[in-house]
Amino acid sequence: VQLVESGGGSVQAGGSLRLSCVASGFSFDDGAIGWFRQTPDTEREGVAIIDINDDATYYKDSVKGRFTITSDNLKNTVYLQLNRLEPEDTAVYYCAVRRGPITIETRVLSWNEYDYWGQGTQVTVSS
User: Fold this and answer.
1) Which residues of the chain are modeled with pLDDT < 50?
2) Strand, helix or coil at 63?
3) Contact 31, 97 (CB under 8 A)
């Protein structure tokens, strides 16, 4: 499985970005795919996930209403639209996939539930 992220950059607070992740070697018919982020001072945290089995989406509380995750199964691509960005959103954003269904919903945003990772893309939000 190979995951390649793109779309990061530097924006001012209130701005928008769209991240893309192209997945190869991964079938969009089972499992979960989504986005995590990490700063030098924090543990990797789940931001937004799509459960491929039922298209359910899950978000970190602080991004609800601002970020939107979508997928294009024909293109093997998952997107994260980031709106109304805040300086606290500054981080490296990683794409990740999980093979197999989500079995414990309360752990869907836990990084150790995921099997493959991209190299990350930097998002920097200035005030």
Assistant:
1) none
2) helix
3) yes
